[in-house]
Specification:
Elements (H helix, E strand, L loop, with lengths): L4 E4 L2 E5 L10 E4 L2 H9 L6 H19 L4 H16 L6 H16 L4 H31 L7 E4 L16 H8 L5 E5 L6 H12 L4 E4 L4 H6 L5 E4 L3 E2 L3 E5 L2 H10 L4 E4 L22 H4 E2 L3 E2 L12 E5 L5 E4 L2 E3 L1 H8 L1
Parallel strand pairs: 4-5, 4-7, 5-6, 7-10, 10-14
Antiparallel strand pairs: 1-2, 2-3, 8-9, 9-13, 11-12, 14-15
Helix pairs in contact: 1-2, 1-3, 2-3, 2-4, 2-5, 3-4, 4-5, 5-6
The chain binds 5-S-methyl-1-O-phosphono-5-thio-D-ribulose.
Length: about 350
């Protein structure tokens, strides 16, 4: 797949994921407010790539404000960082990324011009690092896959959710590069249909065999022996659980009941191991995402409100292992390594 996001001539260029799978279209922004909006309305989505988009958004703000006197520059930059931070509450990567570029801003506040160049450079480095991290997740995770495996995934934790290569789909890509035959089953992922629209799109684009199922089918397919492994991505890993797209918890329960390994692919930028589930805000999105298919056909009676949590919580007891860029860890080993 082509990169989901790029920094080109002081602009942020991204694939407009709301147009997929029908049109491969790009958006280009030179205003951090537009990048923030694109994250909020999900033109770009997926924890790792919204982290990179957030860093690039801060970089655009430094360019806009770099000619201001130091005090004013810092006030404006704080406003910009807050706008970017308030776009989506659950994915750790967004906050991790803003904090990372903010370190540069707080270290060199006396020279906004020079600082702006450093922040732009850092955002570009973060984009490249994301690809390298995902390749390592792939290398590590591929050791868990054997020739002929059918892997279920939920939502989109692929190339589109990252700069390139993906997290949950990285082991699949790496195993295929090693010559193994692997097939993916993608949950459609109501209500935004990231599995049906995005996972199916990017796998087909790269000639990787994929079937789409309705979200309610995975339990049956597991019980029929048609799924060997589950790999999902994550938006945040706390010291007791994994947060990922709504529906992940039910997949994990079904996997446990059918003795199927349930793996979580997580770059270390997603780890928030000093938190527990109580510390995390689960994003609630508009009722209309559930009541109207892709904002169009209404499927419920007028006047009924929907409940629309975007993510759910999978307790560590249901997680077989977590795959990071550094290796494969049981939840206990993960805490020992990173906490
Ligand atoms: O609401 P989204 O589409 O941003 O949710 C994305 C997911 O839940 C992904 O599984 C997660 O961000 C991991 S992506 C590598």
């Amino acid at each position: 797949m082509i990169p989901s996001i790029e920094w080109t001539s002081n602009k942020v260029k991204m694939i407009d994921q709301t147009q997929l799978p029908h049109k491969l279209q790009f958006l280009e922004f030179d205003d951090f407010r537009d990048v923030a909006k694109a994250i909020k309305v999900m033109n770009i989505r997926g924890a790792p790539v919204i982290g990179v988009a957030a860093a690039m958004g801060v970089a655009l703000a430094t360019i806009e404000y770099k000619n201001l006197p130091k005090e004013k520059f810092l006030t404006k930059m704080e406003e910009a960082a807050n706008i970017i931070r308030s776009t989506r509450p659950t994915a750790s990567n967004l906050f991790w990324a803003v904090d990372r570029v903010w370190k540069i801003i707080s270290t060199y506040p006396d020279d906004p011009k020079n600082l702006s160049e450093l922040v732009v450079e850092e955002a570009k480095i973060m984009a490249q690092e994301d690809i390298n991290v995902n390749k390592n997740i792939g290398k590590n995770g591929a050791t868990l896959l054997k020739d002929g495996d059918v892997v279920l995934t939920h939502c989109n934790a692929g190339s589109l959710a990252t700069v390139q290569y993906g997290t949950a789909l990285a082991p699949v890509r790496a195993a295929i590069e090693e010559g193994k035959k692997i097939r993916v089953i993608a949950d459609e992922t109501r209500p935004r249909l990231q599995g049906a629209r995005l996972t199916a799109y990017e796998l087909q684009y790269d000639n990787i065999p994929v079937n789409v199922i309705s979200d309610t089918s995975s339990g049956l397919l597991m019980s029929l022996g048609k799924i060997n492994k589950v790999i999902v991505g994550t938006d945040r890993v706390t010291s007791d659980a994994v947060f990922n797209k709504i529906g992940t918890y039910l997949v994990a329960l079904a996997a446990k009941d059918n003795n199927i390994p349930f793996y979580v692919a997580a770059p270390s930028s997603t780890l928030s191991l000093n938190e527990t589930v109580k510390d995390v805000t689960i994003e609630q999105r508009d009722s209309s995402e559930v009541s109207n298919i892709l904002g169009k056909v209404q499927i419920i009676p007028n006047g009924v409100e929907c409940i629309n949590y975007a993510f759910d919580i999978t307790p560590f007891r249901l997680v077989s292992a977590i795959i990071t860029e550094d290796g494969i860890f049981s939840p206990k080993e993960l805490l020992a390594k990173y906490k």
